């Protein structure tokens, strides 16, 4: 049913329109009737009418002003003017101001009401189609603008532009170019879903604010504080503090989520905006560990991997094969505590995890690594190592194996993804290849080449179960240089092709 709102100061006219016309017969429902434009404005958002029929001459607010305010407020439903014979100039103004059609009150009794209502229905349907198309075009335009802005921002961060190109770059992205002195604030609500962030960013876009808003990414927004005409350093600080408080209040009011806020210094000159953007982005990295307000230059992150983390990597193979779950978890937690205390840069933490995964033979989806935006997410990564520990100890090195064979096994488990063989393992163990080959078979009950093949196949099998990587990608990761040979070997050893194995595992 299409919803109808009637606006007329004459009660008799409103009652006639409501009770005499057969609205329901053609799919309409009268959801409200009011006596003037002010009442209509107060109720139309709540009533959400598809069609508004309004008189022109009314007290408090006439039809002309009502139509103007409805359209200015974004109402995109149909508006039909109810006019008298002497309302021609008013009707003309109403049509120019946003009304779709007019009806003479004197005609309503003279024509077939069903025919009139059908005409109104067609008008509403056409209006709805137009509104949908317009909104779709507006949405596409906004998405295009967002895409251009993000592209320009990445270019500014990377530095791939000449100074004289900056005004044109900013203009192409719909940004102001005349920032000769400014501060930039980046803000990132933690834990918000995409719909919440879209709504929040739309709020900032729609607000009439002296500070320009930018959508840096789907999760990060920015406000630019233009200080070009503010000479006092005290005022710079005061206005920056006010903007921080305002941003925090707005996010808290709409999302009630923890917030990371990064603030640049006051930057001046031709590339003030670029400098401010880079500084704020650098400060934002501190939010990797915990929410808060971070000013550029006040919190430095470590660019090196801590000794405790490097030690864990070196000892991981032994922890997996010889250790117990408690020891592994305690060692991992010690690394987490060290990262947190030293504020290690997020890129270094991710690099460390990649290295540990390679040593442990853990295969994670690339999207998983991409999703690691908060330090707290790393806490659960140890679970994969605990699983590996169980599997490794199921294939435990025999207690009777000597140090040379143990060294060779550790070497294979760490380097199996590389182009290695008997000679490499022999050098690591300090033995000749011939002697290691015989000793390995004696103490492990399996040849070294067979053990290396088994380790590589296990890597591929884990990847087929847990990742979306292609079979070829997994075979290369595991150290198989020849894809065709790998496929034949896999089928021979496992009994099915790699693709069939993946299908079987997914169906379990």
CATH superfamily descriptor of the largest domain: Response regulator
**Amount of helix:** 55-70%
> What is the name of the CATH topology of the largest domain?
Rossmann fold
In terms of DSSP E residues, the strand content is 5-15%
- Overall pLDDT: 87
Distance between the termini: 48 Å
What number of domains? Answer: 4
> What is the tally of helical segments?
21
Structure description:
The protein has helices spanning 11-20, 37-47, 63-72, 88-97, 113-158, 166-172, 194-206, 233-254, 272-284, 307-321, 325-342, 346-360, 366-370, 382-394, 403-415, 422-429, 433-444, 448-466, 471-477, 483-494, 498-506; strands at residues 2-7, 28-34, 51-55, 78-83, 101-104, 181-189, 212-215, 221-226, 259-263, 267-268, 292-295. With 508 residues, the protein is an alpha/beta fold. It folds into 4 domains: 2-132, 3-Layer(aba) Sandwich (Rossmann fold); 172-295, Alpha-Beta Plaits; 307-394, no CATH class; 403-506, Homeodomain-like (Arc Repressor Mutant, subunit A). Helix 10 runs antiparallel to helix 11 (325-342). The chain is elongated, with a radius of gyration of 35 Å. The model has no long low-confidence stretch (mean pLDDT 87).
